[in-house]
Design brief:
With about 260 residues, chain A is an alpha/beta fold. Helices cover about 30% and strands about 30% of the residues of chain A. The longest helix of chain A has 18 residues, at about 180-200. Chain A starts with 6 loop residues before the first strand and ends with a strand. Chain B has 3 domains: about 1-70, no CATH class; about 70-200, Rossmann fold, CATH 3.40.50.1980; about 210-355, Nitrogenase molybdenum iron protein domain (Rossmann fold). The chains are: A alpha/beta (about 260), B alpha/beta (about 350), C mainly alpha (about 325).
Chain lengths: ~260, ~350, ~325
């Protein structure tokens, strides 16, 4: 791992949660983490531990309770929405239920922050759209209606859209949720490839423990309302997984250079 | 307490009606009917049964009333025209219940309302059956507009009389029903003489108008947006116009009710009309506010528009529909004053008025 | 191909317009038209019918055909509901409440009402009624996170005002109720030059403004979260959509009464013909389709050649109902 990579994203004393009338509900706090350029980070943890909340906060969709998120030295709370959109893009679990939109149409929407008043797509935009569509392996479905795709293909479309938005940082919230096994593997592999080829930074929350451990450069593991960060190996040595998943019937080990989950 | 045998035999009537109506049809045309103008009511002098014929859109009903020992000290009257009929017969003191009491135009009844002697038995949209039952009058006089209305009061034990004078399409036929009202309150002589007076005056006026050859062209009805509600060629409005010596622009039509026309058609048909009688507005400003297209009519340009609101009141009542209903002779005189002013030089109209400029 | 459709629609407009003016209850001889075109016959019967009666109605039809489809399209995008129409937030029931108070309070005439007679009074009271509803919605909308909740609130407002209107009708006399019922049937007639000018001043700028925000409208289709991530200020755009849509709906309702089906069905016709959800194309073509459709409906409502006519709402319903059925059927298929 090239340790001299530039830092893209910094979380400084970040606390995330929900503002209440009398009391704020703190989901995660004391977060001091960073993501380097070109890094793929997986956010892991038990259900309900606040992964989505963190993703939404970093994406600027909800305010933090305290602390700050910096992307390339800019605090996101100071950025206008339009400028934030040029810096971070997202892939969410929201269902898109719009008929009459092709894969191309959906991906093209990713150019939104970069096009003018009338949304005209110039040749540069068109090139980029086609390029991203082929990066996710959907050229043959470019003109297919989005609603007619399989779940895996839909997810790939949305990833292409995030790519086309041309941000340095891409956030994914449970990108493999609701997918069948082969699609899950397909998506995680795709993300790994993209991290390697595009040099963009990726942060994704997921339940896919095994796949996450294999593809990620770094892991953020939620534990006791805080996050432990490190490579898979480091975390194994710290026995971080057992602490984070106290009721889990598994042990994470490094066997012959490979990370492995052994179920009890 | 003797309850008089007075009942409405609707169902029984329809069964026996076939036989009865057949005989009715033959006797109807005989001069035995005391009603000379009204076509929907039959009474043979000397008998004690009145037949009221109702013709609805899809059915007919015959109502049979036996007039024996009718008590009428306390009468609930549902429609304002029947109030006027009772008033003409001097029977306002017997009225103890009306609908929309604030809307009546009869001063004596208004006084009784103020004194609390008249109960409110509902609105013109809906009779308050409970109030009616609580009042427990000797007699209820009401009207019916369809077959269902006849069944509205079936749970009320007071005697109910349905009058359908509105189905008559000549003015004299309508007022002739006063004879029936007279029978109900035991004032047949008064009713007969009241009617005879009105008939005499009406026919006298009519013959004067008949003697004139020129017949001015008259427009009637009024518009709502681009729909013009035109009285039918055989309606009572058409009759008034004809009897007053005018020519109704829609006289060729066969309808007795209103006809829905497009404003365009009326514009076309009323091109040479001499006057328009029948709006409700009191000034040209009001007329314009009601419908911007009235100003396109020739009669508007000639400023020959007459309303029916000379005796209308802010409370929503219009005497044209109350007193005017029972004095067709006065209404005819009004029409004649407008259509042939030379015939009645000293007369001043009562219900109809020229629009203020 | 898609441009061809727009071109056809544009060519159709003058054809429909002229046809609507040519035909009506009264048959006008060719000489009549020639007279008018030559500038003669001012104030003649034919002039009155064509220029004073039919022309304003045709222009009103055009304006309604622009305003209602745009209003409906905005509501369909905001709520992502294909059955949304311009009145879904309660604009027409608010207007009818205003008109009900105005026309059904006749027996209890307050001094203020007497100077606002007839159609001007009706229009103003309709505007006041719908504005109150709009303001209530705008006050509540920012506080509601879930757009579906706003929908329910709008529907509830509608039910409440309907109940009040029914009560007012119950206590009125038959004439007043009849007038009120006539208003609810909608009518393109009796709209004069000033009112047409008012409609133009309101409808045209808002329609153009809607076209200018077609980009965020497209983004909203993906959902608020995605729209936000693309840089759309979702709070602001929702308010703008509500304002544009309700103003268009209420200005039409004020002068023409509630005209149904057009606002909901025309966007669907556009989607069906163009097979797209791009708002730029939809807005332009919805306007073109709406204009043509309203002119045709107006022509049909006059039932030329017969002595009678149909209320405009009846005609729009005849067109609209089959399309609604088609939409439900198609969306059932998509939600497998």
């Amino acid at each position: 791992m090239n340790k001299t990579k530039n830092i893209l994203v910094t979380l400084e004393n970040l606390a995330v949660g929900y503002v209440g009338k009398t009391l704020n509900s703190i989901i995660l706090s004391n977060l001091n983490l960073s993501i380097a350029e070109g890094e793929l980070v997986c956010l892991l943890g038990p259900n309900g531990c606040g992964k989505s909340t963190l993703i939404r906060t970093i994406a600027g969709m909800q305010p933090s309770l305290s602390g700050e998120v910096f992307i390339k030295e800019n605090a996101i709370s100071t950025l206008e929405i339009q400028n934030l959109a040029k810096v971070v893009s997202v892939v969410l679990t929201d269902t898109i239920d719009v008929p009459n939109m092709t894969v191309f149409d959906i991906v093209a929407l990713g150019r939104y922050p970069h096009t003018g008043w009338f949304g005209t797509l110039h040749s540069k935009d068109l090139e980029l759209i086609n390029d991203c569509i082929s990066k996710v392996g959907l050229e043959h479905l470019k003109t297919r209606e989005f609603l007619q795709l399989s779940d895996g293909e839909k997810q790939r479309t949305l990833i292409a859209k995030a790519l086309v938005q041309d941000t340095d940082f891409i956030l994914l919230d449970e990108p493999t949720a609701h997918l069948d096994l082969s699609s899950r593997i397909e998506i995680m592999k795709l993300l790994k490839e993209l991290a390697h080829t595009t040099k963009k930074s990726f942060l994704l929350s997921t339940h896919e423990l095994e796949l996450a451990l294999q593809i990620s450069d770094k892991i953020w593991l939620v534990s006791n309302k805080e996050i432990v960060s490190g490579t898979a190996t480091e975390l194994i040595q710290q026995k971080a997984f057992e602490t984070s998943f106290p009721n889990g019937n598994f042990v994470v080990e490094e066997v012959q250079g490979r990370i492995q989950i052994n179920y009890r | 307490m003797r309850r008089f045998a007075f009942f409405v035999l609707i169902v029984a009537c329809l069964c026996s009606c076939k036989r009865a109506s057949q005989t009715q049809e033959t006797t109807q045309h005989s001069s035995d009917n005391i009603f000379k103008y009204a076509k929907n009511i039959f009474f043979h002098p000397g008998s004690d049964t009145v037949y009221v014929y109702c013709t609805w859109n899809d059915s007919k009903d015959t109502l049979v009333y036996c007039l024996r020992d009718i008590k009428s000290n306390s009468i609930a009257v549902i429609s304002t025209t029947d109030i006027a009929m009772l008033a003409e017969l001097g029977a306002t003191d017997q009225i103890t219940g009306i609908c929309d009491p604030f809307r009546t135009t009869n001063p004596k009844v208004q006084e009784r309302v103020k004194q609390g002697l008249v109960q409110n038995v509902g609105t013109s949209m809906e009779t308050n059956i409970e109030a009616l039952v609580a009042l427990n009058p000797d007699l209820v006089i009401t009207s019916a507009y369809n077959s269902l209305d006849l069944k509205k009061y079936q749970h009320v034990s007071c005697p109910i009389v349905f009058t359908t004078s509105w189905q008559e399409n000549t003015p004299l036929a309508r007022i002739e029903w006063i004879k029936f009202v007279g029978m109900l309150i035991g004032k047949t002589h008064e009713a007969d003489s009241v009617f005879a007076e009105i008939e005499k005056k009406y026919l006298a006026l009519k013959s004067r108008a008949d003697s004139i050859d020129t017949k001015p062209l008259v427009l009637a009805g009024a518009a709502s947006n681009d729909i013009w509600y035109m009285p039918g060629g055989k309606s009572y409005v058409a009759q008034f116009i004809a009897d007053a010596g005018g020519k109704f622009i829609w006289e060729a039509d066969e309808n007795t009710g209103s006809v829905v026309l497009n404003f365009e058609q009326v514009l076309h048909a009323s091109q040479n009309a001499d006057c328009w009688i029948g709006c409700d507005e009191k000034s040209y400003a009001e007329l314009d506010a009601m419908n911007k297209n009235y100003k396109l009519l020739d009669v508007y340009k000639k400023k020959a528009i007459y309303n029916r609101s000379k005796r209308s009141f802010p409370n929503g009542g219009n005497d044209y529909w109350e007193y005017g209903y029972v004095r067709p002779d006065i209404v005819l005189a009004d029409y004649m004053k407008i259509i042939h002013p030379e015939l009645l030089p000293d007369y001043e109209t009562v219900f109809l008025e020229k629009l203020a400029e | 191909m898609r441009n061809l459709l727009s071109i056809i629609l544009v060519i159709l407009i003058p054809i429909c317009f002229v046809t609507d003016i040519l035909f009506g209850s009264v048959q006008i001889p060719l000489q009549g038209f020639i007279d008018i075109l030559q500038g003669n016959g001012d104030n003649s019967l034919w002039y009155n019918i064509i220029v004073r009666l039919r022309l304003p109605r045709a222009i009103s039809a055009i304006l309604v055909g622009i305003a209602l489809p745009i209003s409906g399209l905005l509501m369909q995008t905001l709520f992502k509901n294909p059955l949304a129409d311009p009145y879904i937030l309660g604009v027409s029931t608010g207007a009818s409440l205003g008109v009900a108070f105005y026309s059904l309070m006749g027996g209890i005439t307050l001094g203020i009402f007497t100077f606002l007679n007839g159609s001007l009074g009706t229009a103003i009271s309709a505007l006041i009624g719908s504005s109150i509803i709009i303001l209530l919605i705008l006050v509540i909308a920012p506080k509601i996170k879930n757009i579906a909740s706003l929908l329910i609130i709008g529907i509830m407002f509608g039910s409440l005002t309907s109940a009040i209107v029914n009560m007012l009708q119950y206590f009125s006399n038959p004439d007043e109720v009849h007038n009120f019922l006539l208003w609810t049937m909608g009518s393109l007639a009796n709209i004069d030059k000033t009112e047409i000018a008012l409609m133009i001043i309101v409808i045209i700028p808002i329609t153009i403004a809607t076209l200018l925000i077609h980009k965020p409208l497209d983004a909203i289709l993906l959902g608020e979260n995605y729209a936000h991530s693309l840089g759309v200020n979702t709070g602001k755009i929702k308010i703008v959509i509500i304002i544009f849509s309700t103003i268009l709906a209420s200005i039409v309702t004020a002068f023409a009464g509630p005209i149904g089906f057009v606002g909901m069905t025309v966007p669907h016709i556009a989607r069906f013909l163009l097979k797209t959800n791009s708002h730029k194309k939809l807005i332009i073509n919805a306007v073109l389709i709406g204009i043509n459709l309203m002119l045709i409906c107006d022509l049909i409502s006059q039932l030329p050649g017969t002595q009678t006519m149909l209320p405009i709402n009846t005609v729009t319903a005849i067109f609209g109902a089959p399309i609604v059925i088609l939409v439900i059927y198609r969306s059932r298929r998509n939600n497998l």
